[in-house]
Task: structure prediction
Amino acid sequence: MPSPTLNIPSVQHLVSEAEWQMRVDLAAAYRLVALFGWDDLIFTHLTAKIPGTEFFLINPYGMMFDEITASSLIKIDLNGEKIMASDFDINPAGFIIHSCIHAGRSNAKCVIHVHSVNGIAVSAQVNGLLPISQQAFIVLDSIAYHDYEGIAVNEGEKPRLVANLGDKKYFMLRNHGLLTVGESVAEAFVAMHKFESACMVQVRAQAGGELIHIAPEILALAGEQVKKVRNGKGAGLAWPGLLRRLDRNNPGYDS
Result:
């Protein structure tokens, strides 16, 4: 539960219904990231674009992911200026990465970036993600890479981030971590779960014997097969269950 010393007042009455729902979903995603152990203290970011606007929501710099609430999220524009008052700042590195992707991709409604241990481990390997698991089979259908340029505080890196991501859903930032984009918070989160799982499998498999690679002709079937198995509902199949798990383990995100 959020610490009562934070005293974050509700903003539900100040925002549209669509914005409030986006705030609730994004706050839930932050807490789920903590629940799954992908957080890096306060140093990664999940952002979501507010429907019908050019504003997006980002975490208050200094709050742990497991205490973030819908009302604590900071509304900013693409220049990093606050649209609503907050006692917290934003992380400039988070703004650099997320703002350019939101601006460069109309379908990037949610952007999730984590420094998960398995993801960073694979991002530091020359061959990146290997075709050795069903999780990787799904991710490799839409993956891109970006070489490390240091901590993302350089405005000049923005066009290279956007160009390297292109139209892909999964983005491996070399020596840095993982990033996913989605049309919704649910889509971006479920994609991240698949991405991190693929990396975890790879790191564990590499500790054993010779690896079996999935054949290229099988990899080519990924897009079609994923659509079939999700019954046209995509991430919406898993998201309600994830929220129920969160309600059992860390309620209060929707305040």
In short: The domain at 12-249 is CATH 3.40.225.10 (L-fuculose-1-phosphate Aldolase).
